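Reminder: ligand-aware prediction takes two inputs, not one.
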Amino acid sequence: MNPPDDKLPEVYDTIVLGGGPAGAAAALILARKGRRVVVLEKTTFPRFHVGESLIPEDMKVFEELGLLEEFESLPRFKKNGVEFALGDNSAGSRIKFAQSLTPGAKETFNIERAVLDDAMLSAARRAGAEVRCDCRVEKILQLQDGDVRVQTAQGELRGKYLVDATGQSTVVGRHLKTRQNYTDPSLQKIAYFGHFEHVDRDNALGEDEITMVLCDEGWFWMIPIDETRTSIGLVLDAAVAKQVKRPANQMLAWGIERCPLVRDRVKHAVHPPTNNSISDYSYTCAPFAGPGYFLVGDAATFLDPVFSTGIFLGLEGANEAAHQIDRLLDEKTSPVKAQQQYTQFLRNGTRHFFRLIRAYYNPRFRDLFLNGEGPLSMHRAVIAVLAGQVFPRPSWAVRWRMRAFYACVALQQWLPLVPRRPGFSLLAETPQPATSPQSAELATTPPPSGEVAGEAGRRGQPEYQAAEYSPSPSVAFSDSSPERGAV
Ligand SMILES: Cc1cc2nc3c(=O)[nH]c(=O)nc-3n(C[C@H](O)[C@H](O)[C@H](O)COP(=O)(O)OP(=O)(O)OC[C@H]3O[C@@H](n4cnc5c(N)ncnc54)[C@H](O)[C@@H]3O)c2cc1C
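Here is what comes back for the chain with flavin-adenine dinucleotide:
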């Protein structure tokens, strides 16, 4: 229950907007340092969220936060590697985090986000943070060092510093109009996803791996999240999605009908009749800190889900922002220095992931990376980055190998160093219904006339909407179709 207004402290040390992993981590750290922190979360937890797969370096952060032991009792599924497979199952390869070039955690886990996020927010509350759920931030009233104010449905709140952890809603980025979508054609994607029961795991999924299924038009993820449930998603080129005459909430079924590997693994599975979707999720809100505020997690920037790096970036950013705010409150640093150091920290870590993600969408990268171990342990350097060994920066041994690897990818374009990998096209496949009754229902539901997946995807689905921040009337943007700009 929320305390009555007359018992609220007059000014909070920090107001955290959003109670996802990044907001919860920032609040937890500051509360443990004895700071007066309030978290404003618009939903009631536990709530659904996409993004169930972690990377090994997440374990290091959980350990530092003292949460690792507690998390062992949560329903989850071990992950020690990734299976990459072509959609028709004609080719594949796998990586194990134990092959990483540099030392670090060798395994991690997948987990339902409702469970993980609730556990993290509860930990922040136990540490002393005041958590207000069902409390949507409606307007930013003031952003200055030492004086920040926000308007919520429950009234106005004042603090000394503000952490924006509102995820894809990017409340501060939209307020300041700094949010800009990445315009690279390879990043224009729409994701369709849902939870399936009893997916066949007599394969890599049973080997504690997640599976990524490669197609010319995008890729599927298959992530076991507990003993019986598997998260399945399709990330599709937005241009392809626009051509498909299916409502957005049936696009996952559209993909599965055309993908022999996924179809085979879900043939006895049970799943809801429609899928969730999200689009326009690649953007930056730089600068990541400014007068009175720090942007953490997706509220700062998000590129692409392909390597499961989102939560890790959110946790690392939250940790750094909390330490900078703590020093500011003790007057051990200046606002300008704290903002610069935070921005630099986030840039240093994200650029290694972002370069790898952009490279991944080049088919020549996949020729090399999925060809097994190459010379000079370059392959193991890529695995070190995939494991998250990038903060504060990757070791020199990793960095020079990554440069050599990218040079090989460029060369592969003109002079094949390894055989080019075959493709697999969903569009070229003849659709075949999956055999479970639920899948059959999906396959035969006719689309409403005139509705195409790309348009429907942009409107978002009632079950899951990415951007729901209502700005002040003077700030012009649309919730379901964020502003687009060149970066
Ligand atoms: C398709 C897809 C798949 C992904 N898969 C993975 C994966 O496997 N692994 C991984 O690590 N990452 C994955 N990600 C990324 C991951 O989901 C995010 O990076 C992560 O959730 C970011 O955490 P966060 O705390 O910054 O934001 P969020 O987890 O989104 O939390 C933000 C919170 O802010 C609240 N909020 C929003 N607006 C307001 C407001 N106005 N007032 C108050 N509260 C508000 C929201 O309700 C929400 O609870 C994926 C992303 C996508 C798009």
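The chain has three domains: 5-76+111-182+282-352, 185-280+422-459, 359-414. The two ends are 43 Å apart (CA to CA). We will return to this case in the review session.
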